[in-house]
Structure formats: structure tokens, C-alpha cells
Write a structure and sequence with these properties.
Layout lengths: L3 E5 L14 H11 L10 E4 L5 E5 L1 H10 L5 E8 L16
């Protein structure tokens, strides 16, 4: 599969489970990087059968940008397709204040 990149709002990415980012890891990234996405490797996502993007690698990075820079767009790498639908699963934005 050739590399496919998309620019998306991190708040709209779905999570594969009912948990958000690890709070300790998120705080460490906020201290170290703030709201900057410069040099950040693109999070990995899968495209679900219903077209939504499911975040698998980079949950903390996406949460940090969504929290500190609302409305910012990040680049993600689509690494595969899923047969299941994920429209009913929580979004990154559901775990933000």
C-alpha cells in the first residue's frame, strides 16, 4: 500500500478504545513541546469501513494538539483499512475539557 497522508482536525479522530491519552504522558509532552507540532511524526490512522479515521499510534500527540491548539490541522498517515465501522466510537475531542 503506498503511503497516504491526510490533513485532519485531531478532535475528529476516533479512538480504538474507550480510553483517551495517558494523563502522565500528555503532561510530559505539554511541558516539552507545548502546542507545537513542528518535527512531530504523523500519527498513524486506519480508515474504517464508514470512512472515519481511527487513531492507533499517536493518541497523546493528537490529544495535545487538539487541547492546546483548537482548530489546528495535523497531518496523519493512513496505514490501512478496517472492515468494521467506527462512527459510534468516541473521538479525541470527547476527552477534552
Amino acid at each position: 500500500m503506498p503511503q497516504e497522508f491526510r490533513d485532519v482536525d485531531p478532535r475528529e479522530l476516533r479512538l480504538p478504545s474507550r480510553r483517551g491519552a495517558d494523563p502522565f504522558k500528555l503532561q510530559q509532552q505539554i511541558i516539552r513541546y507545548g502546542d507545537s507540532s513542528a518535527g512531530m511524526p504523523p500519527p498513524w490512522v486506519y480508515e474504517a469501513a464508514d470512512g472515519v479515521l481511527v487513531l492507533y499510534n499517536g493518541i497523546t500527540r493528537a490529544t495535545r494538539i487538539a487541547r492546546l491548539a483548537p482548530g489546528a490541522i495535523i497531518r496523519v498517515e493512513v496505514v490501512g483499512r478496517l472492515r468494521r465501522t467506527y462512527a459510534g466510537e468516541p473521538k479525541v475531542g470527547d476527552f477534552l475539557p
